[in-house]
Here is the input.
Amino acid sequence: MSNHLYQKKTIKRIDNKLKLLKSKYSTLFILNIRLFVSLSVLVLLVLFFDIGIVLGPILAIIVYYLFEYLFLDLKISKRIKKLNKEALSFFEMLLIALKKDSLLQALNNVASSMNTEISLSFRQVVNEVSLGNSLNTALDTLKRSLPSKEIRLLITSLQNTNMSVLIEELEDRIEVLKEKNALDNMYNNRLTLIKGNIVTLLFIIVFVLIVLYQLIILNLLG
Here is the structure.
C-alpha cells in the first residue's frame, strides 16, 4: 500500500541515498516517517493555534522537504568529507606501494595497514578477488557504494591496465582531492567562526533583555 503513496522516482532517490549512507532503515520506513512527522505538524498547529489553519499547511510542507535534507543530504555530505580525508592518506600510501608491488598486492598491503572505513572497503575488494571475482567488478561495486565523486574517480584510475598511466592519473587526482579537502577545512573553519559569533550575539541579546526587564520592574515598583 505504501508503494502507491509515493512516486517511483522519489522511492528510487531515497533508496540511493540510504545506500550511500549504508543505512539499515528501509526506504518506505523513511518516507512514512517523513509523511507522519509532516502530518503531525499540520494537525498540532491546526488544533492548538488559531492561525494554525494558515500556518499548518505551510510549515508541514517546509518540514516535509527539510526532512530529506536534514536526515539524508547532510549526513551524506558529512560522510563524503570523512571518506575524503581517509582516502587522501590511503591513496598517497597506495601510490608509494605501487612503485614496487602489483596493484592487487599494493591494495592488500595498504588496506591491511590502516583501520579506516575506506581501507575496510578495499579489504572487501581484495577478498572478492580472492573468491574469484575480477578486480574491475569488485572496484565497480565499491564505486556504487561511495558518495564521493573524487574517490570514485580515483577508483576509476585503478581500473587502468597501463601502470604508468594509472600512476600518473592517481597523482593528478590526489592533488584534486587535496584541494577539495583544503576547501572543506576552510569552509568548516569559517562556519565555526560564524557559529561562535551567533552564539555570542544571542548571549548579548538575552543579557540586554534581562537588564531591560529588571529596569522596567524597578521603574514600576518605584
